[in-house]
Amino acid sequence: MTTTTKYTSENTMETTEPSGWVRPVGVAAASAVALVIWAIGGALGADYVVPGFTGAPDQVNAVDVIMVAAGISLVGWGFLALLERFTKNARRIWTIVAAALTVLSIVPNALMA
What we know:
By secondary structure, the protein is of the alpha+beta class. It has helices at 22-43, 62-86, 90-112; strands at 4-7, 13-16, 49-51, 57-59.
């Protein structure tokens, strides 16, 4: 975990670490938000179909959405933990990589349109 340095009014430093529940709650929240977006899209008529392993189309269900969102969140958490252990600017690096991957995830959809 990273340590946050806070300067007090007396010009002294006070360091704090995030509590142990913040990141697991983030994983759960990411999964919940993905599920809500999936449900809203379904209610508005979106048809969530992906090619299956056999080539036949498969429907994307709520379990698929939760598993993928939680899995990717856990990978991000693990990557941040590695960066915190081995680098000095872990959050900055993680934010840049996360933003780049988010943009790259949109590219295939933009090319198909």
